[in-house]
Structures are given as structure tokens and as C-alpha cells.
Design a protein that fits this description.
single chain, alpha/beta, 7-stranded mixed beta sheet, two-stranded antiparallel sheet, 12 helices, about 25% strand, elongated
Length: about 300
Amino acid sequence: MGRRFDHLGDVETFIAVVEQGSLTAAAVVLATTPSVISRAIVRLENRLGTQLLRRTTRRQGLTDAGRVYLEHARSAFALVDDAERSIQGEGEELSGRVRLSVPTTYGHYRLPAVLQRYAQRYPKVAIELNIANRNVDLVAEGYDLAIRLGQLPDSGLVARKLEDAALCVVASPAYLQRAGVPRTLQDLSAHRCLPFEMPSTGRIAQWQFRDEQRDIDWTPDSLLRVSEDVLGVVSLAEHGAGVCQTYDFIVADRLQRGTLVEVLPQLRGRSRPFSLIYAPHRRLSAASRALIDLLAGQE
């Protein structure tokens, strides 16, 4: 009887190419040459009778068949990982790798303490952390988990809410001394607001207020707007450039030190959700599940 799965090395090569983004990068990771990588992909495609990758001069894009095969291949290797861990005994330390993508707000202000606890508890697990204000494609880009802000569309992904982050409006003492303190939302229209341009739409993110029981969504107008890095509005506000809306957890230390001052506190009360997401049909590794539990506060 012949070996049924003697092509698994080619499957691992295919996954490496997708995760690294090119044949050359995958060759570096696997300590081989691009030509060897290319032959492995061709063998796998010939075996399956379909094209998995669209070749370009710089990157390798997945075909529809490639996306499906990638998801199932990753799930299969995760099952093998789980099988090995199950016979090594419960006392065996977790190992492996977790790839996580988070927005800048969470990556700088919420995640570091969690990852430090995780590293102390599971020192053999490697974490690959992407901090960016864009929504990655979990399957195509090879991420195990992602944290996203706001109301999530019905994408078929599993979502677990981590928190509802409270919003506040702040400015520096120097700016308020120069421009005056806004007392009402109408006053705010005359101030130098620091809006953020949403990377997904190119539109200005609305500021959210609650006036007694009434929710208000207000679009700031300004000669200065920030794109890509939402933390830029906080830095600008701290240096006296104007007024911004942000999350309590970002400016708590600055408010305590007095480098920023909250304005319009009577209009606070709104929040935005942060959620942890992952693909429902992909079998998560034990390392990923342990990180989920820690992020969700269950450990």
C-alpha cells in the first residue's frame, strides 16, 4: 500500500508561501531556494488538478480554490498539533505560534499587559503581532485572531466582545487658555477640532455624544485632519493643536498628569465595542484558545 499523504511537505510549502507573501520569502523561512518552492507548488496544483495561486512578479494571490484549500489545510495541521499535544500529557507546556492583528488603540494601550501575562504563563509560544488600522483577511493573510473596533458586519466570523470603551472629549490646558472652554456642542463648532479619517471609507469619523437620553452623532469640521494613525489626534491635542474625542483608557494617565483636560463631560455616555474575531471553521490551536481566554478575562 502506497503512502496516501506523501505530499504534505508540498502542502506546508503552500501555506508558507501564502503566509510569507512570496516564493522568495517562503524560501528564506524554509531554508531552501525559490525554485524548490516553485516546484512544490506546481506538484501540489497538479495533484489537485486546479490552480491555487495567481503568480505575479511581486506577490502570490490566492485563487478561490486556493482559499478553500488553505483553510482546510490549516485546520488539518491544527488537528495534528492537537493530537501531538494530547499524547504528550496535560503537564506539557504550550508551544507553537499565534498570529494576531489589532488596531493601534488596542495594540498600544490594552494588549501589552495581556501579552506580558501570556508570555509569563506560556513562554514557549511565539506571538506574531500586527498593529495597524486596517481589517486584515484572517484566512488569506494567515491570522489566527484579530481585534476589531465597532459594530461588526455579518461576515460569518466568530466574534467575542472584549469591552465597550467609553469616549471622552479632551484638549490641553494651553489650548483651552488660548481658545476658551467649550460649554455646549454649539460652542465646539467654533473650536479647532481634530477629526480622524476612517481608512476603510475615507470619511470623517463621527463624534458621539449623549445629551440626557438622546444620542447625538456629530461630524467635526477642521482644516487639520488625521488619517491612518488614530493616536495622532491625541498627540496633537496634547501639544495644543485642538480638541479631540478618544477613549478613556487612552487618556487616563494624561488626564491624571494634567497634560489633557476633559471638556463637555455632561455629553459623555457613549462607547464603542472592541471584539475578538476568528474564523468559525478553522480549528484553533491550544495556544490560540489560551490567548482568547486571557483576552476575554476567563483566566
